[in-house]
Amino acid sequence: MTTDVNRTDGQMDELKSCEGSTPTKSHELQIKSVSKSNIKDGGGDADDFDAWIKSRQLLKPDDQLDLTEAELGEEITKVLTTTNTNVIQNLVVYSFKESAFVQVPVAGNTVTLMEMDGSALHIDSDEAKIQMEETGEIGYPLPTLTGSFIEVEEDRASRITKGPDEDEEGEEKAAAQAAKEGEDEVGEEELEGEEEEVVEEGAAEAEAAAVEDAGEAAGAPATAPATGGRKRKLLNQFNFCERSALTYTNPRRNVETQTIPPPRSQYGANVLQWNIYDSYADDFEQQQNERDKKDEKRGGHRKDVAKKKLDKAAEAELLNKKYLKAWQILERMINQNIYEEIANDYRYWEDPADEYREQEGTLLPLWKFNYDRIRKLSVTDLLFNPMYYDLFAVCYGSHEFMKQPNEGAICFFTVKNPSYPDYIISTESGVMCCDIHPTYPFLVAIGMYDGSVAVYNLREDFEKPLYLSVGVHNKHSECAWEIKWGPDMADGEINFYSVSTDGRVFNWVLMQNDFMITTITTLFLTNGIVEGPDGTEVHLRSCGSCMKFHPSNPEIYLIGTEEGLIYKCSIAYSSKYLMTYNAHHLTVYRIDFNRFNSNIFISCSGDWRVKVWEDMRPEPLFIFDLGSSVGDVKWAPFSSTVFAACTNEGKVFVFDLNVNKYKPICVQAVVPKRKNKLTRLAFNENLPFIIVGDDKSTVTSLKLSPNLRLMVKPPKKQQYLDQNTLQVQKLDKLLSLVRELPNDMVILEAPTTTKS
Amino acid sequence: MADEGANPEKEAEKKIVHTYPLVKHSDMNEEMRTEAIEMSITACEKYSSNYEQAARVIKETMDKKFGIYWHVVVGEGFGFEVSYETKNILYLFFGGNLAILLWKCS
């Protein structure tokens, strides 16, 4: 600041010298030019400058010297210097300090007329320009009550520049100088003002303004208000004011917490050599004990493992059983989805074409039942469960004498799950026949090709037989062809009968753990005594091939033989036949009693024939030739005149004697003729469908069309009669037509023959 | 006779000098205890003739590893009654004749 002030002082000096209006202080050059013009004027030169002067007459002062031309032309040289001759050079002043007169230094040539410092700066000055550039604003201050100091400055500058003989440079300099002066002065003023402000803490702004006004009134340039137009004010960097604020002080608080000291414990002991020794001894002993225990445990552990394994197996089995049911349901559901159409047909489809066909019907193939592991055995028996109408047993064996397999099986299928059997029982020999107990539908008796019989319980572990005939004497010596449960014994023992090729009929009673065997009869051939080589007699036996119990009299049964004979026997007499029918020329494969009239039975044979018999009548009532060996024949459960037969050619024949006495009303090839032979057949007890087994282990189910199961319409007058009576009547009516006896034949009355 | 024969065997068995570290008392957690035992054994084996040095080493190591103010006593015969920060004490025998006690108390 101070240096700057000095500098401005210097400038001021120069300015003063320039401004100087007294002729003594003017420059030499100026004087010269003035004198020149004077000379020219004096010379009377016709100049443009003088053109506007009217009078050319020179006015001469009275006291003007008359000079000669030479004198006038003489040049008088006069030198002007900057040294002021009027200044006293040797001024002395008494100095009390030195107690002597001291020469006062010579004053300069300058005379200070006025000196003023300012804090404002000129708007055109470099400093202002720089500030404007920096702030990016136009340096015009806000209009205020006191007016803009810069404007004032400008006024002042212009006032100054109005000096009569000053060039432009001078003007500018003067302006800047003045502005600076003004600034400095304002700075001083402000400083003063601020001092005042500091003194009077918190004084109103108005007061400050008043102070400024006062400053202005004192002749100083207007000062910018310290508060207003802050942004736009171009600041002289040496002019600053300090501003401060005090914020609200928050009250103080003290909060302290103290943590819980860590828990401490106490411990004490004495370390002595014998203590150490004892500790070691104890520890060693303990270790030894533990080692022994471990060894023991290891031994025991193995046992545990074995036990655990057993337990696990048992658990798994239990679990499996638990899941088995769920899985079975799932399997059934899946099958139901897969075979949905067949299932619908099975229950609901009725062949509409039957209405337009007279005396003819069709068989609709439904599911085929297979067990994958058995493909080459033939179906040797088919039987519906008496309790669950849709469950049936299929026996797998072989009729071939030469190619007997050493395995057999009995499977229980249900129509609800055609893809896989519900029960599978494997045997070591081909199963030839089976029977399900009527009151205990879980007991299954089977006869096998090797002559042994077995009883299985399906409710429990059905893979092992409940009873099995063991030993040489406890079984048939040849293939067991048919097996039938008999009515319970007097003391409630369950028993069954079996017939075999060895010509014997056994009764098997189920004891606690074993069978009790009784030979019911031995089928001796009449006139079958052959003389042996040494005069011995050999009693020839006929070979039983099928057996059927009388439906109403449990003592009476029919036996079919390989010789083609049918014996009517009674359990009561083992040595005598009640009746012998000379029925067929080849093996009788099946005998079946009519469901409605127990005097009527049917038989089929390998001699292609199916014959319908009446009790005690040696001649058949009907004979049908089916063109190939007939494997099975069964009466229908729903009609007294309908029966079905299957042949080796793969055909199923359905007869309704009421409709046609001579021809079948349906002949249908079920399996390919060349490849497959049909072996067995069974009617469902409740629904109009049959199952047919072939020699390739396949069971086919067939639905009977409406024409094959015509019911009897009750006559108008006898509407009250039920179907059963009507069926019986129908059969009787039919029989009466064919009963015309040959001449001189007398029907032997037997106790079982019921009068019709 | 049989007894006489058996006795010397027992005697011989008893004379076995056990040198494995035997923890007499400790409430440290497993990890800390294992480390402390290891370290104590190492120190005692290294400075088997200078128990003071061994104790110093153990103390310094424990201070570094488990925080400051551990106290260690190594010796063949002494009695003590200390209060310690729970879960921070180990009292073990080592080498058959040496007791090492370390506890923390800050």
UniProtKB/TrEMBL annotation, chain A:
Compartment annotation: Cytoplasm, Cytoskeleton, Cilium axoneme
Domain of life: Eukaryota
Cellular component GO terms, alphabetical: microtubule; outer dynein arm
WD repeat residue numbers: 581-614
Ranges of biased composition (kind: Basic and acidic residues): 288-298
Gene Ontology biological-process entries: cilium movement; outer dynein arm assembly
Residues annotated as signal peptide: none
Keyword Iron: no
Family in the record: Belongs to the dynein intermediate chain family.
UniProt name for this protein: Dynein intermediate chain 2, ciliary
Taxonomic source organism: Ceratitis capitata (Mediterranean fruit fly)
Gene that produces this protein: DYI2
UniProtKB/TrEMBL annotation, chain B:
Keyword Nucleotide-binding: no
GO cellular component terms given for this protein: axoneme; dynein complex; microtubule
Cited Gene3D superfamilies: Protein Inhibitor Of Neuronal Nitric Oxide Synthase
Record Pfam families: Dynein_light (PF01221)
Keyword terms of this UniProt record: Cell projection, Cilium, Cytoplasm, Cytoskeleton, Dynein, Microtubule, Motor protein
SUPFAM superfamilies documented for this protein: DLC
Compartments (UniProt record): Cytoplasm, Cytoskeleton, Cilium axoneme
GO BP terms in the entry: microtubule-based process
Domain of life: Eukaryota
Protein family membership: Belongs to the dynein light chain family.
Task performed by this protein: Force generating protein of respiratory cilia. Produces force towards the minus ends of microtubules. Dynein has ATPase activity.
Subunit structure: Consists of at least two heavy chains and a number of intermediate and light chains.
Protein name: Dynein light chain
Originating organism: Bactrocera dorsalis (Oriental fruit fly)
Taxonomic lineage of the native organism: Eukaryota, Metazoa, Ecdysozoa, Arthropoda, Hexapoda
